[in-house]
Specification:
binds magnesium ion; single chain; binds guanosine-5'-triphosphate; Spore Coat Polysaccharide Biosynthesis Protein SpsA, Chain A; 2 domains; seven-stranded mixed β-sheet; elongated; alpha/beta; 54% helix
Length: 372
């Protein structure tokens, strides 16, 4: 079993000197495995490259790639992955920072999982036993935690808690070698999220092990302001690709809402508000059925007239539920809080929100179900 530990470096001479002996010691805990240490240096301006070359003389299992020009964290890793797969014939790849924030004492926890045949093992700060430095400013803790949470919710990946951890082990065969590296959306920090989403989408076996993420004691941080925007961009691009139907459904919904709200307000000038809501709801329903069929769920579209009729009936029946519920909510609100424009509309929008959840579920799971 060949395991390659890829470590990107940029101006980390002090850290490299400390890290290498510590890691080499950990390698000895697993005599059945062959470990390689692969440094990908972004053409450091300090003595990192010289330090690594010295270490190569001392330890026989170290390899070094020096980039002509620093290409970002993702860029460095992509070079490292390719080299590990093509030149080193690795079975597993570990990703790890050089600055000792990833503690070598946590390294064996990742390797232990190899025998359980996981596809991806994540050193996680957000499972029981994991941690981020106490000394981190509150804003950094919040950004890190809520950043992960945001990505998980938007991408509906709930089983992974630490989305941006850079301490991981990945299987090569069937996982890493299935990834087209030219498609990775980021050359920077956000490559981590990109890789995670791709691996998750392969229906991989993923596990998290707790790690204590440390403070950087030596050298300078390469964390950049743009990492945040970069990460947000990657998450939103994936969200767009993964939720195409939902985004179109929402657009159609807004169209329907516009028709519905305008009609409601016009008609309720003369009719009782709960009758007006029922009427405007029906008109909006017809409008959205046609757009959903020919636009949102186009690839699952009904074309035969008989099918269209049957499904419109089902659509209408299911849509009746939120429309009637909404009429009732408005009735209750008006009865309870008085009949003002604000009360009517507050109740109206609460009804809309509940209806949204109901409708998308029924449409995507029943009416325009996949592979009928
Ligand atoms: N080759 C290469 N390595 C990089 C690049 N940017 C960062 N690194 C290395 O990647 C690792 C992680 O970078 P850090 O600056 O520690 O980022 P961080 O851990 O998110 O931020 P801090 O908590 O502030 O340290 C370190 O080993 C860096 O030396 C790059 O553009 N090219
Ligand atoms: Mg760091």
């Amino acid at each position: 079993m060949k395991i390659t530990v890829i470590i990107p470096t940029y101006n980390e001479e002090e850290n490299i000197k400390i890290l290498v002996p510590l890691l080499e010691k950990k390698f000895q805990l697993f005599p059945d495995y062959t470990f390689k240490l692969l440094f990908v240096d972004g053409n450091s301006k300090d003595g990192s490259v010289e330090v690594i070359k010295e270490l190569i003389k001392e330890y026989k299992n170290i390899e070094l790639i020096v980039e002509q020009e620093k290409s970002g964290l993702g860029g460095a890793y992509i070079k490292g992955y390719k080299y590990s797969i093509e030149k080193l014939n690795s079975d597993y790849v570990v990703e790890m920072d050089a600055d000792l924030q990833h503690n070598p004492d946590d390294f064996p926890k990742l390797i232990e999982k190899v025998k359980e045949d996981y596809d991806l093992v994540i050193g996680s700060r957000y499972v029981k036993g994991g941690s981020v430095p106490k000394e981190w400013a509150l804003y950094r803790k919040l950004i890190s935690y809520f950043g992960s949470l945001f990505a998980r919710i938007v991408l509906r990946i709930f089983k992974v808690k630490d989305f941006t951890s850079g301490f991981r082990l990945t299987k090569v065969r069937g996982v890493l070698d299935q990834i087209d590296f030219s498609k990775i959306k980021s050359k920077g920090f956000a490559y981590k999220m990109d890789m995670l989403v791709r691996i998750y989408d392969m229906k991989s076996r993923i596990v998290e092990v707790p790690i204590a993420f440390g403070l950087r004691d030596r050298g300078t941080s390469k964390m950049e302001q743009k990492n945040f925007q970069d990460s947000l961009k990657v998450v939103l691009e994936f969200a767009k690709e993964r939720n195409k139907n939902f985004i179109k459904f929402i657009m159609v919904g807004f169209g329907g809402l516009f028709v519905d709200a305008t009609l409601f307000n016009i008609i309720s000038l003369t009719l009782e508000p709960y009758y007006s809501a029922i009427f405007s709801g029906f008109v909006a329903m017809l409008f959205t059925f046609l757009l959903n069929n020919f636009f949102s769920f186009r690839e699952r579209q009904k074309n035969k007239t008989s099918e269209l009729l049957v499904f419109f009936l089902a659509y209408a029946l299911s849509s009746l539920v939120p429309i009637i519920a909404r009429g009732y909510i408005i009735y209750l609100f008006v009865y309870e809080f008085g009949d003002t424009l604000i009360i009517r509309n507050v109740a109206f929008f609460i009804g809309i929100f509940l209806g949204l959840i109901w409708n998308y579920t029924v449409y995507s799971k029943i009416i325009w179900k996949k592979n009928v």
